[in-house]
Amino acid sequence: MSGSRAAIRYAKAVLSIATDQKSAEVVNSDMKSITKAISGSEDLNQMLQSPIVKSSDKKSVLISVFKNANTATINLIDTLIANKRLPLLNDVASSYIQLYDEMRGSQVASVTTAIPLTEDLKTKVLAKVKELTGKEAEVENIIDESILGGFILRVGDIQYNASISNKLNKLKREFTLN
Fold this sequence. Notes:
Strands 2-1-3-4 form a 4-stranded mixed sheet, sandwiched between helices. The radius of gyration is 20 Å and the shape is elongated. By secondary structure, it is an alpha+beta fold. The termini are far apart. Keywords: ATP synthesis, Cell membrane, CF(1), Hydrogen ion transport, Ion transport, Membrane, Transport. It is found in: Cell membrane; Membrane.
């Protein structure tokens, strides 16, 4: 838990600096590429977590992987190395993205469906999210065939489950109770 609090503190500091430098959007795209790279590469993740790999080696790898990164992003990496907190890089990047979205009044609506969403359905989902939360949102479509049909909508801490599998489970529970 203390690691996540520290990650939020670092993310707030970077967001503040990036906002002052009017580069918050560029740093946000850096943070998205950092989370994508770390989650997509087990080797990179293990290298960041390893106490055996020297900090200088970690820095050279990160600089070469993120060579087009903004100076605020590079300074974050330097600060995490200096404070021996580099394993938090992915958490800091995720926290930054979340804080940036909150600052912009935007959020991510996660929609789980059995088949990919069409553009028409995406528009309807965005309208529903705006109605529920009063904020704009980006739609992230997760495909899970096990829900059979319908959808599961998650926005922040709100979840609406309108999947066929959920309805079948409710029916099953009703029949087993009677």
